[in-house]
Amino acid sequence: MNGATDDLAKMDLSERKRTDYLDWNEYFMATAFLAARRSKDPNTQVGACIVNEERKIVGVGYNGFPLGCSDDEFPWGKASDDPLGTKYLYVCHAEMNAILNKNSSDVKNCTMYVALFPCNECAKIIIQSKIKEVIYMSDKHAHKSTTIAAKKMLDAAGIKYWQFVPRKSKIVIDFSEIDWDNLNQLPVTPVKSRGIHQNGTS
Ligand SMILES: Nc1ccn([C@H]2C[C@H](O)[C@@H](COP(=O)(O)O)O2)c(=O)n1
Ligand SMILES: [Zn+2]
């Protein structure tokens, strides 16, 4: 063993860098899936997370009805004799919501992480908003014309897409495992001593 390895071996676990942290792809895909948990769709919950070139999240969204269209009044069903009686004519897809929810001026050259491969309508919005890469988890509708058309357009526009295959089968946030006592002992710097007032001015 060389000196550095020797030192590392002697180190207490609490002094060593953690090794089981999430990598960037896991972190952003998990964020997309966390957003999906907000969806009221009883059948398919989709989340999307947009990340810029500095690996900062600039938009998150999930599938749901537009503003003002009540989750309790509009239909969540998939089948009806009347097309107005299903969700399909009303629901905003996660990808569209993530782009519209952006907190940056645009999403040019960003990467989108999404639970399900984008449909043709979302592909159009992705292309027009200049997103450069799409990372998806499921391609369960690969056989549908909406997905085939989406891929045709993404290919033509030169947008890369690839499937994320997770290394771990679970990423769990278990609130019951969090050591709140320890968290409470973290030093708290009073806002005033940092020279920042509540309104953000210094
Ligand atoms: N890429 C996608 C695909 C679908 N969605 C939404 C639209 C619906 O709310 C739901 C699909 O419903 P299903 O036919 O599976 O019952 O997922 C989306 O947001 N993004
Ligand atoms: Zn879509």
UniProtKB/TrEMBL annotation:
<dbReference type="InterPro" id="IPR035105">
    <property type="entry name" value="Deoxycytidylate_deaminase_dom"/>
</dbReference>
<keyword id="KW-0479">Metal-binding</keyword>
<dbReference type="InterPro" id="IPR016192">
    <property type="entry name" value="APOBEC/CMP_deaminase_Zn-bd"/>
</dbReference>
<dbReference type="Pfam" id="PF00383">
    <property type="entry name" value="dCMP_cyt_deam_1"/>
</dbReference>
<protein>
    <recommendedName>
        <fullName>dCMP deaminase</fullName>
        <ecNumber>3.5.4.12</ecNumber>
    </recommendedName>
</protein>
<keyword id="KW-0545">Nucleotide biosynthesis</keyword>
<dbReference type="InterPro" id="IPR002125">
    <property type="entry name" value="CMP_dCMP_dom"/>
</dbReference>
<dbReference type="InterPro" id="IPR016193">
    <property type="entry name" value="Cytidine_deaminase-like"/>
</dbReference>
<dbReference type="InterPro" id="IPR015517">
    <property type="entry name" value="dCMP_deaminase-rel"/>
</dbReference>
<feature type="domain" description="CMP/dCMP-type deaminase">
    <location>
        <begin position="23"/>
        <end position="161"/>
    </location>
</feature>
<keyword id="KW-0378">Hydrolase</keyword>
<keyword id="KW-0862">Zinc</keyword>
<comment type="similarity">
    <text>Belongs to the cytidine and deoxycytidylate deaminase family.</text>
</comment>
